[in-house]
């Protein structure tokens, strides 16, 4: 790491850069979301449902996004009311239904993706897209390592030593 705060722990620097980059990208891609008339929370939940490897629950989406379950639930309720997602029985949990995308929800997500792709194309001039791919792959692998460590150690893995 190089910069003004070289004494910071690398994970703190990573978190800072992640938030700064996220803010810049969120601003740049806001137009894609506006084109489908969904709020940020609704778009995040729709993306999690449409792009998920399997149908998620509200709690799973909340954990994945680092969002409170209640916020995800409100967004999911709005998406159900709009006919963009549906709930399905969850064989693993009676009270936590699975969320699945409707054809309309998937089409709306693809419409937003097309707008986002146009924005990305306009932004990409002069950027090292190979580096972006490597960074994305690296972040995914790092997130998976972190998730595995947190699962193995539970909440204790994220608690500083000496705290009770």
Automatic annotation (TrEMBL):
Residues 31-132 form the HTH marR-type domain. Pfam families: MarR_2 (PF12802). InterPro entries: HTH_MarR-typ, WH-like_DNA-bd_sf, WH_DNA-bd_sf. SMART domains: HTH_MARR. It comes from the Bacteria. This is Helix-turn-helix domain-containing protein. It comes from Novosphingobium aquae.
